[in-house]
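Provenance and format

Records in this collection were gathered into a single text stream. Each protein contributes a sequence line and a token line. The two records reproduced below are adjacent in the stream.
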Amino acid sequence: MEYTYTLDTVNQAAKKLLRDLNIEQSVFNRSIIICFEAEMGSGKTTLIKELCKVLKSKDEISSPTFSLVNEYKCPFGDVFHYDLYRINQTEELLDLGMEDYIDKIGVHFIEWPQVAKPLLTDFKTVTINFVDFNSRTFNIY
């Protein structure tokens, strides 16, 4: 189901997304993988920052463009935020130890997941699309 939001309503969008993905604010007891697919500048990082806030992280949430992965602490467990934009091949992820990260218990938000998908077995995909300059939609697959 498509959900439309703006920057002013991104908090409500994050709450809805977590509900729709069945990610509750309870102790994370497994690896939950969410892949984000969207055009450059569509707001993937902005939405993920808001998701972390809703999950009550007190950490400074930033884009992991250069570190590839940032780890945030939440009362319910760890959140891992990946930005794989600069990765071109799945083998690069293997060399970086991606499989070890993905197996960690917690919620994993992956931007630009195309090269990682061959390593993933159980995940959901969130697509973000432009409606206009201020509005976006997301869908879950």
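Adjacent record:
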Amino acid sequence: MDKIKVGIIGTGFIGPVHVEAVRRQPDTEVVALSEINAELARKKADELGIEKAYGDYKELLADKEIDVIHICTPNHLHYEIAKEAVLSGKHVVCEKPLAMNTTEGKELTELAKKNNVICAMHLNCRAYPLIQQVKEMVARGDLGTIFAVNGSYQQDWLFKETDYSWRLEKQFSGESRAIADIGTHWFDTIETVTGLKTEKVCADFATFYKTRKKPLKPVETYSGKTLEPSDYEDVPIDTEDYATVLIKFNNGAHGSFTVNQVAAGRKNRLYFEIYGSKCAVAFDSEEPNQLWIGNRDGNNEIMMKDPSLLYPEVREYNSYPGGHTEGFADASKHTIRKIYEAIRAGKAADTDYPQFADGYRELALCEAIVKSAEKEAWVKIED
């Protein structure tokens, strides 16, 4: 079988995650990457063991050897690169958000439908084994009618005034930061697992650091590096550190969600509770191999991640037997696995992987949430 040849565009925090996930697939090979200049591209390619390095993504798109493009750049570049990649006949795997707004997102979604290529999103949180177990439990009616969904996605990587990232700046990240960056993962996970659609939202935003100290030297996301006081400049911040969103779902269920990027001690915690008429479940991504099951008339349960205990439909999302921890990297692996299965099969309409349409859905949710926070009122999601 011929190997699928892959090119990675952007090598910040998430780029190497994509490289690793692709390398864990059979018959695939990462053959090239691109960065903002040739020197950085060559440095990153050498670090990652990749043969070709391009200082311009257009050169990578022109490489006829490459079958699949992974877009791992800052947000403001996604639309342009994705559009060019699809038109060049490449399959595309894009980091969220798909674009900077729903207008761009709608164009890319329609473009994906017209072209015979796979257009996918790296919405990997839905691929945790126990999240897939919850999805199957809901589908089988184990939870009964869903009454309420509550949860959060919290991190502390922007906890200090001196913590800085391009994500803080609207020209690079878009109108929303915390909701768009990690809130989208929560909403995608909940809608995928429950089969429900968010109909209305009522949001409250807060920016705790009105001014942050921007490094005058580069500091990579999650790197933990520190600089001297003279190495910073004061910059005003107009993106949200925190948001709470009230939710109304299309089946009449209600919910609430909090996102916070200045939550001390929370390194990367996606959490949800789903309350049904038969039982409840709760999942914590910092303890991804345990699922809490709540009962009224019996003992509560802790279900451990073990293929022998999970529903048969879920076992493909397990790589190891019970007692062998699987986490973030494995969720990415299985997300990429489903995408590459679709590429192999030529099944662009396969619903088992996150598609551009899912990316567009997240853009619509973000725009409604931002509008709600501005108006201090309920806003309907417009698809």
